[in-house]
């Protein structure tokens, strides 16, 4: 009975870590969507709110880190549970850095809003939506232990990379045609790269999840 | 005696993780220096070697990860040792991503070598040297538990950021003056951003080290 009680408490603690990670992931998704909404609608207030919300993400990172360390110290888990917690520690770092990227998008948006618009955004919102879904699916794959979903995230990264290349090429033609557009085009280019990095973080998470489930490291293999 | 023997073996294992991390850090430093040497001297062979050496870094990451998990499972460390190992797990991820940045520099260098040079590089080698020292010092701070050295790394990041800003502004003037320079200038801009990200990874490591030593999280405070 003692052992069963212990094990139930441990399960509760692992579930709590799972829930906190999902909560953090949900907030990061909102940041991604809001940062792009602020860009497309030239909404500086929203951009400011995105920048401010990064603090919340940083706080969550520290809390989940501490929680993982507590559980590791108290429960001394083995095998699968150990792998789960050490992976959670790595994943929060990726989520926190996604928050940093959203804050960067917010900052560039504030700068862009002080100048006339260069062009309507078409590929960028698709890229943001795609990246947000990748973050969500990578976390779902983690908490559900779903390797097929994780593989999907890895494959989807190529599409975001392709969109980023397309945006960069398009911006290049703007810059060549009109030197006064260069400064704005470079800021838009930076935002595109932020989104590409967000998708990279999601892919990193997915690759680590596959390693957790399959014991197979695909981080440095082509799949 | 049994306990002492156990403890000695554990110390040996922790030391081995320390040594492996330093070894990985040393290889990453060489990559940073070589990638810039390849850029400055337009040496495509060296750039190819940098790209190829990323595999070695990836292998080291997987090995150290596995070693940390083994020690966690077998020794079930508490307090300081636990914090040390979980931090090692996070640090290898940063080192691996520094390797990715060097590989990116190598790829851009190969592209740049197919076109005439834009200008001599002055700030970029300084930025690379600075970033390499930051990586080394961040790791030294980790293995020696030296918080003062870690604080220094955090402060030094500003200098690399300033150099990156300066390079970006300079490239902008090139692009405005001569549209045929834009494609090359953007590649150089990407390399500059790679170096900035390398310094960011070193700073991330240093911030985590300060947290390990002081129990104080400065990741999200201004120091």
From TrEMBL, chains A, B:
Residues 21-108, 125-209 form the PhoU domain. Keywords: Cytoplasm, Phosphate transport, Transport. It comes from the Bacteria. It is found in: Cytoplasm. GO terms for cellular component: cytoplasm. Gene3D superfamilies: Phosphate transport system protein phou homolog 2, domain 2. Pfam families: PhoU (PF01895). One of its GO terms (biological process) is phosphate ion transport. Belongs to the PhoU family. PANTHER family: PHOSPHATE-SPECIFIC TRANSPORT SYSTEM ACCESSORY PROTEIN PHOU. Plays a role in the regulation of phosphate uptake. Homodimer. This is Phosphate-specific transport system accessory protein PhoU. The lineage of its organism: Bacteria, Pseudomonadati, Thermodesulfobacteriota, Desulfuromonadia, Geobacterales.
């Amino acid at each position: 009975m003692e052992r069963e009680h212990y094990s139930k408490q441990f399960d509760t603690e692992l579930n709590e870590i799972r829930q906190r990670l999902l909560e953090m992931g949900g907030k990061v998704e909102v940041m991604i969507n809001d940062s792009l909404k602020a860009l497309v609608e030239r909404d500086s207030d929203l951009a400011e709110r995105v920048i401010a919300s990064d603090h919340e993400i940083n706080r969550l990172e520290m809390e989940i880190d501490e929680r993982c360390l507590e559980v590791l110290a108290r429960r001394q888990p083995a095998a699968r549970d150990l792998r789960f917690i050490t992976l959670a520690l790595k994943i929060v770092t990726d989520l926190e850095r996604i928050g940093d990227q959203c804050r960067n998008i917010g900052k560039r948006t504030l700068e862009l809003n002080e100048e006339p618009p260069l062009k309507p955004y078409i590929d960028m919102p698709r890229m943001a939506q795609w990246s947000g879904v990748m973050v969500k699916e990578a976390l779902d794959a983690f908490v559900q232990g779903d390797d097929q979903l994780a593989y999907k995230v890895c494959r989807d990264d190529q599409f975001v990379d392709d969109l980023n290349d397309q945006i960069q090429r398009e911006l290049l033609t703007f810059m060549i045609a009109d030197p006064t557009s260069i400064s704005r085009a470079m800021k838009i280019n930076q935002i595109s790269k932020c989104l590409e990095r967000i998708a990279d973080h999601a892919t990193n998470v997915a690759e680590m999840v596959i390693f957790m489930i399959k014991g197979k490291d695909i981080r440095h293999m082509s799949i």
